[in-house]
Amino acid sequence: MTAISNSGLVLCAGRTVTRQEVEDFLYAEADILDHWDYDSWLALFEDGARYEIPTTDYRPGWSPHRTGSFVDDDWDLLRARVKRLKSRKAHAENPHSRTHRLVSNVRLSESDTEDSFRVAASFVVHRARDGHFDAYVGWYDHLLVPTEDGLRFRLRRSILGHESLAAGARLSFIL
Question: Which tens digits make up the pLDDT trace of 153-170?
């Protein structure tokens, strides 16, 4: 098990990770995504990682694999998603949407393994496309791993706070 202190520190895999380090990691990821730099984004994952967006009826503790997901990518599907989004074949994102991400309320907690820890954070993603402006609101439930090269995602889960998505709303970009 990882160890969490009251001061926003986590001891994981023999290394102390601060909340500030995690916040900087999440802010850098938001900037990478807003600039559509998917190679840099994929480099933030460890090999074998997952990317998930459960459906809007998801509740904590439910398995998105059993209850349904908008996105349920294993490592191979995640790499294929990045490859497709970088190509002209991603018609729903050609040209790219304009996005702006806000990340807040970052909290660290223990995980079930000694080499990872959980991160929860709130998000708002503003998206402009085809004359429409949408806001996607929710929270992140990530599993992070400290490595020699910095923090990496083992699991990146985006949970929408919406009761449902508006007609015409698309998740053709990374949430």
Answer: 999 999 998 887 776 667
